[in-house]
């Protein structure tokens, strides 16, 4: 992709990566991605907003040169310092000797360790600070935890453009910059939702706070860090509407305590149902689903474990540990919003029984409110074991009534 003129003074100079299929190790990117970067030209000064991935520096520099001489760039604004935004900074600074780097307070600390350099000039942008480019003004809006503590927005009032950092973005790559040219809307919508779920769902209260900061701005264009540029009358309104809809914090109508398990011979499964009966004996109207992890898709399980009021999770012991599907489900927990959520570990074992204590160790790392020492029994549960499991369920349920 070469440079593209978005408005009279705003240009896209970013890079397309249509072949990417995994982003940041854990995100599937079936539609590729882009590393968006922009130039804003004022009558006196020029700002480069965001910096591309280091791997694409040569092509990125060619795009910049189509718009201006790099030596004429006065400011390099980093709304966020993750390496997909800042990776090419060290090389860009070599060809932009007059540029000052504009970052948030947190960003200034991170950037030193990302670039391993301290020989560049820095401007710390506080909430509401502005930079005058000459007939174009950049206003900085702190947006912490969207999705790093250093995140901020940059707004150009004269052009009615919001540079939104990662917010409203998508890992979606087509040859065209603007959303008005999207060829496969259903693919874009899938990528847009997947991006939100992976990056912003854990930070819903911060999304709400961030949106309140921009609600009174006159915005015709949102220049995202990934995916198409959003424009009024096309996808801009859609993006705002969906973020507002998806970020509503919904409280369960009744106490919701799913019980997740894996069971090779039905032993841990029997215990799961006994615990469920114990919970229901204390909280009659509780929603207590007993869920075989291997019988449900990962997204459904992740949604249930993150939206519940508390949960129990059971595994037999295999190779001195919990089985992989159980461990994988714990890895899906939103550690930010699930902090202090009640959690119970249980399971059958044959020889040594490490699964339950290992699950507890993991849950403690996630800062869950771990119940007692869990519950484990050897081989096939006896009537006494099932009665004890029932009692564990009762005691666990009492946590929700306290």
List keywords for this structure.
seven-stranded mixed β-sheet; 12 helices; alpha/beta; six-stranded mixed β-sheet; single chain; 402 residues; 33% helix
Secondary structure elements and their pairing?
Layout: E1 4-5, E2 10-12, E3 15-17, E4 22-23, E5 27-28, E6 33-35, E7 38-41, E8 46-49, H1 57-67, E9 75-77, H2 83-86, H3 89-95, E10 100-103, H4 105-115, E11 122-124, E12 130-132, E13 137-142, E14 152-156, E15 161-163, H5 185-200, H6 204-214, E16 221-223, E17 230-231, H7 236-246, E18 259-261, H8 267-282, E19 290-292, H9 298-307, E20 311-314, E21 317-318, E22 321-322, H10 324-330, E23 342-349, H11 355-365, E24 369-370, E25 375-378, H12 383-401
Helix pairs in contact: 6-7, 8-12
Summary?
The protein has 402 residues and is of the alpha/beta class.
